[in-house]
Design goal:
The protein is α+β, with helices and mostly antiparallel strands and 141 residues long. It folds into 2 domains: 2-77, 3-Layer(aba) Sandwich (Rossmann fold), CATH 3.40.50.300; 94-140, no CATH class. The protein is built from 5 helices and 4 strands. The chain has helices at residues 41-49, 74-77, 94-101, 107-120, 136-140, and strands spanning 2-11, 18-25, 56-64, 67-68. It is elongated. The relative contact order is 0.14.
């Protein structure tokens, strides 16, 4: 479960974009974040994931399965975002795009991990394909 406790977000010393937000989001449930341009929707998501810019000031706690993750680096939170428009490098193969995310792993291990990830996504054998050949749903996976 993702829980937000008394989250307040402001940029620099401006008035808060979000003030006192508390919510529990059950696994598998859907929630809508709606608001005008500049109201703090993307900033809230970056605070949850731990990727907020330095000029973003956030207070409160982000909890994942009851554990406070607010003070952790983004990679230690194990929270990710899936954007509406997938960000794939068009000049690279699908396998090479995935390998970028695995750069921290040993080079000899990356190829096998890319193959495993594609198989889990139902895209086995797509390593060498051009990203432009993917449907929207395939690219999101």
């Amino acid at each position: 479960m993702l829980s937000l406790r008394d989250i307040t977000i402001s940029i620099a010393d401006e008035m808060p974009l979000i003030s006192g937000l508390s919510v529990d989001i059950e696994p598998g449930s859907l929630r809508l974040i709606q608001g005008a341009s500049g109201s703090g929707k993307s900033t809230l998501l970056s605070v949850i994931c731990g990727t907020a810019d330095r000029n973003v000031h956030a207070t409160g706690d982000v909890l994942l399965n009851g554990r406070v993750v607010s003070g952790l680096d983004a990679e230690d939170r194990r929270i990710g975002l899936m954007f509406q428009d997938p960000l794939l490098f068009p000049h690279m193969s699908i396998g090479d795009n995935l390998a970028i995310a695995l750069a921290a792993h040993h080079r000899h291990d990356r190829k096998a991990r890319v193959s495993d990830a594609l198989e889990l996504a139902g895209l086995a054998g797509f390593e060498g394909r051009d990203p432009a050949t993917l449907s929207g749903g395939q690219a999101a996976r």
